[in-house]
Amino acid sequence: MKVHLKQIPVQGLHLEGEEDCPIQELESEGIRCVGRLRYDLDLGVAAGALWANGSLSQPVELRCVSCLEKFVLELRVPAFAVHMDLHGPETVDLTPSVREEILLNLPAHPHCDRDGDRVCKPKHLNTTEQQMKQKSDWSALDQLKLKS
Length: 148
Description:
Elements: E1 2-4, E2 13-19, E3 32-33, E4 37-46, E5 49-63, E6 70-85, E7 91-93, H1 95-104, H2 121-133, H3 139-142
Antiparallel strand pairs: 1-7, 2-4, 3-5, 4-5, 5-6
């Protein structure tokens, strides 16, 4: 995502659009982009620096650490912000900053039921089995012999 500094007016510039996935090199790690990066950014130049803020959204396919099934997660960065000093070039590449924000928002241990719209099969099976194997809390009282 390259920005030409001469195209940014004094009052700033608003950019919306889509770009290719900035984290394609992670496919070997089991993280695959399933769509394009969407951005909604405000840009400006002040005091010899470029600033940008807005939001990013990148759909990725991950593997659940519990059931090992693949699922799609929409990575959202609602408060993307960057400030970089300008050192002469007329174009500035925001791709490294965007890539870093996306990587920081990847879950360390992805779960397919994270959003609550899906039930992870192993978790559901384990809780049902555990409930069946558990003794009743009243079982100790059932064995109590009272003298009448």
